[in-house]
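A brief tutorial aside. Many learners find it easier to grasp structure tokens once they have seen a single protein encoded end to end. The record that follows does exactly this for Acetyl-coenzyme A synthetase. Read the sequence first, then the structure, and try to relate runs of similar tokens to stretches of the chain.
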Amino acid sequence: MLKAFACHEIANSSPPRSEAAPTQAQAQAHPRQMQHHNPICSVKGTQPSTSSQQPPKQNMGDNAGLSVNGVYPPFDAFAKMAHIKGIEQYETMYKRSLEDPENFWGELARENLDWFRDFDQSVVGTVNKGDVAWFLNGQINVSVNCIDRHVKKHADKVAIIWEADEIGQGREITYTELLEETCRVANAMKHAGVKKGDTVAIYMPMIPEIAFVMLACTRIGAVHSVVFAGFSADALRDRLIDANTHWVFTSDEGKRGGRTLPLKQIVDVAVDGLDFVRNVFVFKRTHNPEVKMNPKIDIDMDDEMKRHRPYCAAEFMNAEDLMFILYTSGSTGAPKGIAHTTAGYLLYAMITCKYTFDLQHDDIYACVADAGWITGHSYIIYGPLANGVTTVMFESTPMYPDHGRYWDLIQRHKVTKFYTAPTAIRALMARGNDKIKEYDLSSLKILGSVGEPINPEAWKWYYEVVGNRQCYIADTYWQTETGGHIGVGLPGATPMKPGSCTKPFFGIDFVITDENGNEIKGNDVEGQLCIRKPWPGMARTVYGNHNRYLLTYMATHKGLYFTGDGCRRDKDGYYFITGRIDDVLCTSGHRIGTAEVENTLVAHNVVAEAAVIGIPHRIKGEGICCFVTLVEGVKPSKDVEKELVQQVRAHIGAFASPDLIVLVPGLPKTRSGKIMRRVLRKISHGEEDSLGDVSTLADPSVVPVLITNTKVALVGKSF
């Protein structure tokens, strides 16, 4: 689940247009190292900033920064300039989006996107049947909408600011340069045999080339499958096999937080023995001569880019053509390849980005997520670029070289809209306020949160300290499957409540149900969150397994899309996400299935059984707690615990590293053999007094041992 409030942008309308031949300037320009020029239409420096006290911002109106009974109204001055200028306008548009989706979305699609061929109908199908399709018979190209049309109007405007791991080593790419580099990659792919409909895997660090590759795929109609570069070789291999991927893009190495990541080495292990992988395209990030190249399948992209023209004609894509696959964890253990299609996804990413962050032409927008997750797809690449704004791509971490990195980035680039995760907010809040005071953050207008629920204390710190009580907090709730925000406040319209994703986005018909799928109407209610009607950004299927798609999202609550989340709707109609209902954890904004971790643990030869649950974590939001029984003859020890942690890190990735391993002689099971995770949750949360009746367990004697061993395992731990 991708959730934000708490877990990852403006184009003028114009008639459909065909591709034009490259200009002489397009043929000669290249991405350049940063120089000092106009901050929007050219290249600017990325040298370390000088410290300065944060000055007061302009007065935003009589109600600026004030809370009335825990509700923070939108700023008066901001509302006057916003796209959505008040709650009345939101309510009118929202009502129409539900009652007349055909014309509501049809008008937005024609006003905001360029089409090769106009569509005949906006939407057909139902959520219940899982046969939804948008913009029938329309033809479009994603890269044209993200690049070409902006080149024609603002050729020298900066499209991407790349903030490298080391301060001062970044660069900027204008829209003209973005077009040229995207076309060179597209031509390199076509030269290697990549065709429309082929799947291309991308396992890359946060460098500009990842955007070039993603956009190049959309230009020629290839389907990209981006795999987060923190996943292990085994996890990457599984995804390559599932999508039958013939081509992989990577780089020699990656950089993050001062560390070097052996990405090419990981890819080599992943593709070993996979005869269907034809080529591995390798960009150079570190230019380490010790990184080995396989002449049989590897292609050096530094050389390859020089061979190809900076122009490639764009494919005419049908609106429902598959655009990308993105794998997300499932409760069954096997990751699901969430499939998004072209026009509906692009429009939804663009419109949610535009309205959530109230994007204006001169904005410097920074989402500090990773392109390996849906946040990076929708809110680093496609949403901002479709809107024609400048988007920041961040390679580093909030703590490198120190915990002022975010604030330094904001000051140097004069960032206006900033989007990060509660995990980072909580970690920075724990460091105190002194560092923030060294920087000028007065350029900020909107602060976003993504990845997981943000607790009210962190929300208030974000609002009061980072935003100086003068920035709107866009608390976004959504998922990989939804394509974009489904619950979020709009800066000029929606009053804010700490901890709430406020109201549904346009077209999103939230329904709260009981465990049996019966709707619970009215306010001040709690239950399971579903969606009644289709929206353009919804995933169309699970790649290669439509039945799994129907069973996961449509079967449990007839006629509704089931989010898998619990939800409370308060007396004012505000929505609060209460957590996952299925066995999926959200740790540091990353979604990971408990079954996937359990299967990895049991694969170790010393493990007999494993049960994984989530535990509260003040930084990550949710930590990973593993209860493990060992095979006969193996004695519990710290060395065994360390081995098991390494097992998970090696087979899934460091982000899934267990926070707590409890070695136990047995697990609490029913007489039918089902593990009672409820008992494990109570014990790990220190709520053993409320375990209830455990006499029905197959072996009740395991409970006191579980309690004792958990307390021992927690000694010295601080979550």
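Self-check: Residues 1-53 have pLDDT under 50 and may be disordered. If you spotted this yourself, you are ready for the next section.
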